[in-house]
Amino acid sequence: MITSGPLIWHRFETLADASEALAEAVAVRLRAVIATRGSALLAVPGGTTPARFLTALGAHDLAWDKVTLLPTDERFVSADDPASNERMIRAAFAPLGEGRARFLSFHRSAGDLDAAAGAVSAELARLPALDILVSGMGADGHVASLFPGEPAAAMTGRGLHAVAAHPAGLPARISLSPARLAGAAWASLLVSGAEKAQVLTTAQALPGAYPVGLLLGRPQGLDVYWAKA
Ligand SMILES: O=C(O)[C@H](O)[C@@H](O)[C@H](O)[C@H](O)COP(=O)(O)O
Fold first, then answer.
1. How far apart are the C-alpha atoms of 45 and 205, rounded to whole Å?
2. In this prediction, does ipTM exceed 0.95?
3. Which end of the chain is more exposed for a tag (fewer CB within 10 A), N or C?
């Protein structure tokens, strides 16, 4: 039986403090990975939490031309749609706007969600495992676009790199697969508020109850950057 690795909590009073600390930790790791491998693959979340983190990370001085960034998931909309995670990430993360870091977009011309997800999965299949994952989490315990009860959350095949998701009442999405998320060399969660802290505590006690459990159960462990408010 594979035992879970260490769950390391980093607790902060504010999201600004948690974001700055996580940005520092990711920058240190990026430098180390680049020094070892010559390049680095970093996945970052969408949603409302990570903008400050992305801006803080982008302000660090490192070899951004050696870094490829990708979203943990993307809404099936156009790249300039206000709901696009890529739009938010590009606005917050200066090294992309200045053409230094590379971005692997999940936006595809394929009109069909499954075809687009298949194209993203095929592109990701040619890449190594994620060096660094920064994920968010919803109050329902979803990570990326792997929602409770959503078939995508159960698509654990190791050959799958990206999956199509149809969360109820939300735009369709393309998500990194459970294997791609859980397989990151180093993984972190950036979350805030008491409700999400409680979901994490419950998920730790009930493996399999929430999609975030796929990160909590990692043998490599998980670092949680939690802000009180
Ligand atoms: O596309 C998305 O919305 C995100 O990738 C998603 O997985 C997000 O991380 C959680 O929903 C938390 O969102 P908030 O940060 O807005 O609470």
1. 25
2. yes
3. N
